[in-house]
Design goal:
single chain, mainly alpha, about 0% strand
Length: about 475
């Protein structure tokens, strides 16, 4: 164990920096190397937004280098948790496969700077792992500090981007659900980068909902009312944003909450009252948009023209799940349930078969299965399955290790059935988050890429460790 207060504070600073780097684009750092002769000129021309993005993009590399220095100097690499080693090896494999992907089809979609940029997410993931390794060996350092920092950033993201989406929902005169807002609208960018889509934002809301719910169990009476208000608002956002996975997750966690209550009658009353209030607030928000001033919204329509209702006084509260063009075809049910994911998975298998050992490296799904979309400058769809992403990006060895990771933490996952027996609310929160992320890996790339899921998973893995 290392007893160094300076390292304790520095590790917290680095963790805050990693959270701040989420959503950064490696090009915001790498652009300065586009012309070797104009390096100084490239830097001197940056405005404030570009400077902020520069440091956000550069920070993961800085964190990685500092983390490696501390680990090596104090010899902290040994006797760490097995799950952290597995995650580290997966990322190292991603480095190797990304390097060798230069000789694959990926060379058709990238130049040298683009290729180097694909290491950005690997560097961020490894830097996160190193921080948890260091924290695990620090004396008088409580890893819950990471968890509290994560709650702060999670709440900040949910609050900021939810307000932005709802503000646009009111001002753009859209007559369908908020889900149909164009993700490329001018106001949907933060620091020059695309905001999280409502599907990703809904996931963050679910995590925050779980955290507040269990915090509320130990709250004093004067704080319980405030927490219930927050739960009502967050729950209404789930119905408002209408991510299918988020709605399903919301149903699941309410069942978990029910079984967590010792007094089932009291638990049922609390859950039902919250649900009724959440649905009422959802309808209130959805209906109240008709009283706001109307502006021209042709640019902002995301789906077909049918999304704008011809009756100016009538609004549609729910997203359109069906696709009329696919009605009566075998693809219709798949579109309703999986939102086109099976088509993406089928498309990816041909490329996986061609390169099963090495794969195509980090972020390769954005290019390989989106070739037509890249040509037409359309929205890019990720492969939306963490296991297939592991196979496509890192090859068969990456997939095997990813399976092994979940096998290694199976006890933490199955603890979901023992929630009621746990006395520690933080352990309950960690268990539910691990369980939800495991489900999310079936329909999103999730923890195979650095982001909110990745940092929360690392937090939860240590929260659920036996003391």
């Amino acid at each position: 164990m290392v007893n160094n207060k300076l390292i304790n504070f520095f590790v917290i600073f680095l963790f805050i920096g990693l959270w701040s780097s989420i959503g950064s684009d490696p090009y915001n750092f790498l652009f300065i190397f586009e012309s070797q002769n104009n390096l100084y000129l490239n830097i001197s021309k940056m405005n404030l937004k570009e400077i902020i993005n520069f440091f956000r993009a550069f920070f993961p590399l800085f964190c990685l280098l500092i983390g490696l220095f501390i680990l090596i100097k104090y010899k902290l690499f040994n006797k760490q948790k097995k799950f952290i080693y597995i995650l580290l090896v997966i990322q190292i494999i991603q480095i190797v496969t990304t390097f060798f992907s230069k000789d694959s089809i990926m060379s058709n979609f990238e130049n040298s700077i683009d290729h180097v940029g694909r290491y950005h997410w690997i560097i961020s993931s490894i830097a996160s792992i190193l921080l948890f390794m260091i924290a695990n060996k620090l004396k008088n350092f409580d890893k819950k500090n990471f968890f509290y920092i994560s709650i702060f950033f999670l709440a900040l993201m949910v609050c900021w981007f939810s307000v932005k989406n709802i503000s646009d929902f009111y001002s753009m005169n859209i007559r369908t659900s908020l889900y149909n807002l164009n993700v490329l609208r001018e106001s949907a960018f933060f620091l020059g980068h695309q905001m999280p889509r409502v599907t990703g934002l809904s996931r963050s809301i679910i995590f925050l909902y779980v955290i507040i719910f269990f915090i509320n169990l130990n709250s004093k009476n004067k704080f319980k009312f405030l927490n219930y208000v927050l739960l009502i608002i967050l729950g209404s956002f789930i119905f408002l944003f209408q991510s299918k996975f988020a709605v399903i997750s919301f149903i699941i966690i309410n069942f978990i909450f029910f079984f967590n209550f010792t007094n089932k009658v009291k638990g049922t009353k609390i859950i039902l009252i919250l649900l009724i209030a959440q649905i009422l607030l959802f309808y209130t928000i959805s209906n109240s948009r008709i009283i706001f001033n109307k502006i021209d919204t042709d640019f902002f329509v995301f789906d077909s023209k049918d999304n704008l209702n011809k009756d100016p006084n009538k609004v549609r509260h729910f997203r359109k799940i069906e696709d009329p063009q696919k009605k009566g075809t075998p693809q219709h049910f798949e579109h309703i349930v999986f939102s086109g994911r099976i088509e993406l998975w089928k498309k990816s298998t041909d490329y996986i078969k061609a390169r099963p050992i090495l794969g195509y490296g980090s972020m390769s799904d954005r290019a390989i299965i989106n070739q037509k979309r890249l040509i037409n400058n359309d929205l890019i769809n990720p492969i939306s399955n963490a296991f297939l992403y592991a196979l496509m990006s890192g090859g068969i060895f990456s997939l095997i290790l990813f399976f092994y990771f979940w096998l290694n933490i199976r006890e933490k996952i199955f603890n979901i059935f023992k929630i009621q027996d746990m006395s520690n609310n933080e352990k309950k929160i960690g268990t539910i988050i691990i369980f939800l992320i495991g489900l999310r890996c079936l329909v999103e790339n999730s923890i195979m890429l650095f982001g909110v899921d990745y940092l929360l998973l690392l937090n939860s893995l240590y929260l659920t460790e036996k003391k």
